[in-house]
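A quick aside before the break. I want you to see a complete sequence-to-structure record at least once, exactly as it would be stored in a machine-readable document. Don't worry about memorizing anything.
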Amino acid sequence: MKKLSLKICSSTFLISSLFIISGLSSCKGKTEESANQTTVPVTEVTDFEIPDSLDLFEEQLLPSVVLSPNAGLNVLGRDNQMHKMKSLSRGNAFETVQVNGAVRTLNLYDEKENAETYIHAVSDNVDFWIYKNYVAENALPAIIVEETKGLKFGQIVALGLEKVEADKTVEDENSKAVVYYFDKKQDKVCSMMMDQDKVSTYKDDVEMAAIIEKLRVTARATPRNELFLRAEKLNPSPAMKKVLEGEKTEKLSYDYQEVLKSMPGSRYIVNVGELNTVDQSKDPFKN
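That is the input. The structure line, written in tokens, reads:
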């Protein structure tokens, strides 16, 4: 494991550093031998104007979303290393801590001064640190309901809560939104502008997307019918309903009529085209 030094960027930690400095100033009587001993790396803080009252420190919790499959909630050990306490899945929501308008961060540096930035996270009222590149801050869990710009249908993303200024030079009836997604090649969360109607935070849409994905890999009629029955209990958006309707048509990858003709000793004539017109979403044995 590579050895990391610690640098913290937070208003709270500045107060602690002031007490440490005042304590060190009273230790002038130490011997030269003790002064040369190895010490813990110095904690560095960003420039910060000290307010007259601690009441001026405004702390706020922002909704955030994990978009990497490798993310986890960590605690900082005495060895200045991060230790994972809980693994997270894509789409899991938590909160990040913002102080005076800035997200609280912590930087860990290796021997070559390469930094890894973590942000202060809160989950179930417990404080953790989480790798910044794996998180969409100030956002809500969402899914793609229409493939666009390289993002696939059903892909887990995050919808940014920040307001987007309308582009008056472009005539577009669709409102725009900031969408965060995980880029595997860059191993970090990226963002893009896209039409808001192509992404949904609606719970029924999320569940419907999961059903549609199962329909696309399910061939047998009985389990498909069960999936369609589950879908009938949901009230998804019009875009998701349109995708579901498309799954009710059987898609063939082979010409089965020609296959049947080539089979020796076939005793029955089967019209495959006629069978394909049967609505797969309905149970033929149900009254």
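Two observations worth writing down. The radius of gyration is 28 Å. The chain has seven helices and 15 strands. We'll return to this after the break.
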